[in-house]
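Spend some time on the protein that follows and explain the fold to me:
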Amino acid sequence: MSATPAPARLTVTQWLLLALLTFDAVLLAPLELFFLPLRLDGTALPKLGDFPMPLTIVLGAVTTPLLVSTTARLVRPGLSWVPLVVWVLVLFGVGLFGPGGDLVLIQDWRALVLLGASALPAAMALGGGLGKAAGRASSRRVSSEGLSSGGKRG
């Protein structure tokens, strides 16, 4: 049984990128949460029958998986969970214990759709990135073992 080598330490640039992507998650979660109750009622959006218009669901569905995949690509696949976990913690933290103790997380279908449309694709991007990284690592290990044994398999 061969021991897997310890991953290389993060460079300063990788630490800064991880901090920036995590900070983006900290900013996006409250933004998506605060603008979730938008309606077509004539106050912020045009008057079109008082229909709910949760535009931030689309924003979350695009940006959260993008944060995860960008972290996997630019920092390290093993750390791509950080923006997703931070986003979820900030979303629930601000939503349940918001500014002044207010409950900001609205209690209807839009909150569930925001969570599902953002966290599920991000979790899929996380799993895909980790799976690709594991596949690359195992193929490198198999090719190095094949080279060291003279290309013979037994």
